[in-house]
Amino acid sequence: MSRIDTVFAKLQQQKRKALIPFITAGDPSQQLTVPLMHALVQAGADVIELGVPFSDPMADGPTIQRASERALANGMSLRGVLGMVAEFRKQDTATPVVLMGYGNPIEAMGWETFAQRCAEVGVDGALTVDFPPEESHEAFEHLQRHNIAPIFLLAPTTNEARIAQVAKLARGYVYYVSLKGVTGAGNLDLSAIEQKMPQLRKHIKLPIGVGFGIRDAATAKAVSALCDGVVVGSRIVQEVEKSGAQDVAANVGKLVKELRQAIDQ
């Protein structure tokens, strides 16, 4: 079993839900990313989504856009992100790491090289925001060959045929975008998530994580009751943005611990 499958199986046995925090690699600095990843795990993260910075992050709101800008200004690249995962794996061989980003940097590297490097450094999954399943066949083949889980987004507007198509291709877990909008938007509708879940579960046997718009412990707890995992990105990146270098790991760790405790209640 993959690291992702192992984690979700263990959580299911414990009747617990996954906490999946997101940070942008290279923000606030290249030197602090790996310590931040370890802080996330120590605070209770089950899976880490590590953002690959990109100049035009179309699915992301202002908070993560600024994080990408800072990371790129710090000299961050896809090769650098892969190097960070390799460094993280020197101490942590168990926590799944999913790279989340956009197609251009991977296309520039080449999917075959990307998948091979992911396997070498210990990446477990890849979520490419702007690669729909219809355009993912070559990518899927390379990722599958190297046992890297292709992870797909589904949205409130996704129809049943698309859900079924994603169910056939996806591995690891499926990421359900809880609202019509970009990351960090504040108009989360719990009843809409609840209404969508039966349609998703009809086709998807993998765990379903829900993200976008989860801004505090109370919301994380409420969302966790409806799915298998809670993805929190913008709120964590806000904490990175407002913290000084000396305090960022402690502040992010405190926030993630609060989210963990709320989800486990």
Describe this structure as you would to a colleague.
It is a single chain. With 265 residues, this protein is of the alpha/beta class. The chain has 12 helices and 9 strands. The chain has a 9-stranded parallel β-sheet. Strand 4 (125-128), helix 7 and strand 5 form a beta-alpha-beta unit. Helix 2 crosses helix 4, helix 4 (78-89) runs parallel beside helix 6 (111-121) and helix 6 packs parallel to helix 7. The mean pLDDT is 94.
What is the CA-CA span between the terminal residues?
28 Å
Q: Provide the residue-averaged pLDDT.
A: 94
Query: Which strand order does the major sheet show?
Result: 5-4-3-2-1-9-8-7-6
**CATH structural fold name:** TIM Barrel
Question: What fraction, in percent, of the residue positions are helical?
Answer: 40-55%
Ranges where pLDDT stays below 50 over 5 or more residues in a row are none
CATH superfamily: Aldolase class I
- Overall number of strands: 9
> Any idea how many domains?
1
Radius of gyration: 17 Å
Counted by DSSP, the helix tally is 12
Question: What's the helix and strand layout?
Answer:
Layout: H1 3-14, E1 18-24, H2 30-43, E2 48-51, H3 62-73, H4 78-89, E3 97-101, H5 103-109, H6 111-121, E4 125-128, H7 137-145, E5 149-151, E6 153-154, H8 160-169, E7 174-177, H9 190-203, E8 208-211, H10 217-224, E9 229-232, H11 234-242, H12 248-264
Parallel strand pairs: 1-2, 1-9, 2-3, 3-4, 4-5, 6-7, 7-8, 8-9
